[in-house]
Amino acid sequence: MQSVQYFPVSPGEDLEARSVDPLFELADLLAQLEKSDTRVEGCRRLHALVDGVERSPEASDSVLSVKRVQTLAGETMPLLLHPAVFPPEHWSCTFAEGLLKNPEAFQGKKLVEIGVGCGWISLLMLKDTEAHEVLGLDINPIAVLMARVNAWLNGTNADGSYRLTRSGRPLPEAFSGDVSDLLEVPLSRNEQFDHIIGCIPQVLHPDPNALSRLDDRPGQKDLYDLSNYCFEQGIIEDRYGLPLVARALTQSHLCLKSGGRITLMMGGRAGHGPIEEMFRRRGFLPEMLWSRRVSQASDTDIACLAQVERVHGVNFHFYVCATSAESIPARTVVPLLSSGRPAYHDVFVYQATPRCKSISQILQNLQKVDASGAWRDLDFSRVSETHAAFLSYLTGSLLRQRQAPGVRPQSLSARLRRVAQLTARFLRSYCLWVVDPSEVVVGIRSRLVPALLKAVGGSEDKVLVSGTLEASYKGEVEQSGLTPVIGNSDLADLLELDSALSPRVCIFAPAQFRDSAAPLVVRLLSQHADRHRDRLYIVDDSQHFQSGCEHTGHLMLKLLNNNSALAPNIVLLYRHISLPYEMTALLNVPAVLRDKLDCPVPDAASQVFYEWLFSDLLRFTVEGDLPVAPMFEAEEVPEGLAWQMVRALLA
User: Fold this and answer.
1) Which of 186, 451, 507, 641 has the maximal Cβ count within 10 Å?
2) Domains in the chain, number
3) Which runs of consecutive H residues, i.e. helices, occur in 322-384?
4) Which helix (H) or strand (E) covers residue 154, if one does?
5) Could you read off the pLDDT of 355-393 as tens digits, one per residue?
6) In this structure, are 176 and 232 located in the same domain?
7) What are phi and psi of 132, to 5 degrees?
8) Three-class SS of residue 629?
């Protein structure tokens, strides 16, 4: 939605009509206040206007009114109000309580308030905390006008002298206001903030067609309703009346400085579960700071919530009494309110921090490739930090290709060679296993193992499989035309079965390797295999394969450390899964078998992911006197594949 413009009288209409509308007087007064040569006279006019309205509210022909609120410091703060703008009430008072729970957190910070209204929360932050500056935003232009006027009212004296914020700045200089749909205006200016605060409408408008009226000349009620209702955005949060909040959260990633946070006033009608799930879906970690129970406002039509309950099978949370322990749904509250009885609901103040920096980078990249509308389908709650960093790389690849069309994406065959090279470097740096890249066989286990078995034996051969591996390997053995024989997990028993049954291949994951592979146990297996050179022993040590530097990871490789203790007919298998991607590496495969292996390569997405993962891990290694292979600069991912992977990870 674009910013709404408000012109009570169009240019060229009766100028007398302009003179009786207080908004024109206030706009003229604001212009006078913001000019240095007329500021003193403007201050005199402003304070005289407020005194007049406050002294004779009933006798005044103006629609303006004055309300006073108290700051934490005990100062009385006058607020000039207009019927098209929300006044201070229970919701915003609870919001103020939550914000000021830890006032020291705002020291020296730059804030932006979404839904500034008459400006009193922003002014409170400047008076009761040491916030450096506040930008107040509202889609209602009358609200922005009133907030700016109230900043001058509370930031000056009638003689034109300034009043200072708690941090020592003239208050009118520390506060600014803009008409903006959520954060669109500061986004267009690439502004960054330490803290985003706001109270955003959380009830769907009872008239979906009301949106079209806002494109013309909206009346005061239409503008007031902008602070009261929201419209569907075509996202899952629609069903709880939270689509605007969800969009604001996504935008916040693009406006927050590193270490920044967001604090929002939330209606508790949806319940904690949906509210916190929304924060997590949009990439934030939520924490509830404050809550109160308030009566349902009479100026908000909740019939739409009852309709949502019927359509989507959800229940909103209202209460019969202020002390009720259990809630009732909206469809019960509607007739209760119609009978003249009150109903209640909770309000919460939630603070949240971005889960990880990569999420902000993803959204920035999507915005720059003209895909900012993708926010509707994003669900960061199911994306690990590793995958978020990978998505940042993928979307960055798309952006670089758009900015430099001459870039040629790397071919998949080249990517596979690079995965093998990077795997070899990873093994050397993290596992102390020095191997030539040509000796590393990479692929997907479901394809590699059948290919290896076919290269080894005929259809009459048996394969001895550890009991714990039956579910994983029985089907692959049968697929290869061989006969699986299932043993248990004890190494001594497995070696006894091997001696008695003479299988062509053994696939082991001994229980003795589960916690740590002791040198004596490894030596026992290697000596046994060395006595049976006609057989192949596949040791699945995947449980110790970690994509990092964990002390217990890769223990068997570290113990062996390329020494001669490992028999040449023992193949080490390491499988790594980072859903939805998988890579399996085979080590110590005899050359005669490597030459016979004819198996499909890993899928393209897995190649790209593991190329990125190992490149990322290797950025942090210091290899000392070890021979260092050249570092590989990541090449671009083909656009179609990149988009496919982005959608798969965020769906």
Assistant:
1) 507
2) 3
3) 330-338, 357-368
4) helix 141-155
5) 999 999 999 998 888 886 777 778 899 888 989 999 999
6) yes
7) -80, -45
8) coil
